[in-house]
Amino acid sequence: MSAASFIAGDWGTSNLRLFLCSAKGVALDSTNGPGAAESHGRFANVLSSLTTAWQERYGPLQAVLCGMVGSTIGWVEASYLPCPAKPDQLAEACKSLEDGSVHIVPGLSCRNRFNAPDVMRGEETQILGALELTQALTQGRHLLCLPGTHTKWAVVNDGVIHEFFSAPTGEVFAVLNEHSVLVRNHGGTHDRGDSAAFREGLAGFNGFPQSQLLHRLFECRARQLAGELTAPRAEAYLSGLLIASDTYGALRLMAGSITAKPITLIGSPELTQRYASALSLNGCASHQVDGSTAALAGLAQIHRRIAEGSHS
Predict the structure, then answer these.
(1) pLDDT, average across residues 12-40
(2) Is 72 exposed, middle or buried (0-12, 13-18, 19+ CB in 10 A)?
(3) Cα(153)–Cα(120) distance, rounded to whole angstroms?
(4) Out of 59-68, 149-158, 194-203, least confident range
(5) What is the largest CA-CA distance in the chain?
(6) 175: number of Cβ within 10 Å
(7) CA–CA dist 18, 9 (Å, integer)
(8) pLDDT at 48 over 60
(9) Looking at residues 235-263, what average pLDDT do you find?
(10) pLDDT-above-70 percentage for the chain
(11) Quick one: CATH architecture of 1-77?
(12) What are the pLDDT digits (tens) for 69-98?
């Protein structure tokens, strides 16, 4: 078994995932804890309580953390680094705490293609990990998609993150699904994966791509009243409409950033597969990278750069 070298952590709003890692970034052990919202005012204690056994066994271990731990509701605010941003700049901009034993990765900011401010926090580390895991991404211009609550579409050129924009696809789905009359599947069974109804939602939107999404949403309700969809299937249909709209719009907005290369999808296998299906219907190939694996690889890269900087 490789010797432990550092602790990597993805500290989101609702969940904390910690990994005990070797110098090469291989996870030797892991544990879970409360998210940033629940850890308010006691971040140091939470981290210490979850890593005491590791620290006692292997000695002092540096921790590198990304996600909402560096936000306004986090341990300390790690300011957004403006794009374009290189991997070494992210490492240099990390916030150091606890006498240098904890480093918090900053987020990224940009003016997006709508000339509006945009931000990401956590996804930048996944992008760095994807660059590490897929070396082809470090050369040339690539379009990346990170599906989630707030989906990010990012352009990377020769390994530098140049620009991105956000689509709150997952959040809109949750709000409409849980707080509107469109689905009314509260407390029922769920079937929003890559089901027939999800594919029907994708195809339904792509059949009339010139329409606005607002003109299509009510049919989730109307199709139930007409007996065409059950509530669980309407949930999947709604997911298909939203992801199809997100994908269709992004492809046209970022047309100048797309070449013959496949679009890289970074996230949970379930979500990236849904987006892969949507991209396929638009004639686009895709390459999927597991989000957790990418985050760990990104944290390992940042730790390595911090260590190199301290020895230079």
Answers:
(1) 95
(2) exposed
(3) 10
(4) 194-203
(5) 69
(6) 11
(7) 4
(8) yes
(9) 90
(10) 94
(11) 2-Layer Sandwich (3.30)
(12) 999 999 999 999 999 999 999 999 999 999
189-to-4, 225, 228, 234 alpha-carbon distances in Å? 43, 18, 17, 11
Domains of the chain, by residue range, sit at 1-77, 108-312
In single-letter form, the type of residue at position 244 comes to: A
How many CA atoms lie within 13 Å of 196's alpha carbon, on the beta-carbon side? Answer: 3
Alpha helices by DSSP H, the chain: 43-58, 87-92, 123-133, 169-179, 196-207, 219-225, 231-253, 269-281, 291-311
Q: Which residue, chain included where needed, has tokens 């240099």?
A: 92
Angstrom CA distances, 157 to 193, 252, 273, stand at 32, 19, 25
- Are the C-beta atoms of 236 and 201 separated by less than 8 Å? yes
Which residues lie across from 143 on neighbouring strands?
A: 155
- What count of residues does the chain have? 312
What is the topology classification, in CATH, of domain 108-312? Nucleotidyltransferase; domain 5 (3.30.420)
Alpha carbon distance 248, 251 (integer Å): 5
Closest CA to 105 of 74, 66, 132: 66
Single-letter code of the amino acid located at 281:
L
108-312 shares the fold of 1-77: yes
The pLDDT of 56-69, averaged and rounded, is 96
Question: Contact at 8 Å (CB) between 81 and 90?
Answer: yes
pTM equals 0.94
Q: Output the six-digit token pair for 8.
A: 């990597």
Structural tokens at position 295? 């985050």
Would you say the C-alpha torsion 111, 115, 116, 122 has a positive or negative sign? negative
Average pLDDT over residues 211-222: 95
pLDDT band at residue 192 under the 50/70/90 scheme:
low
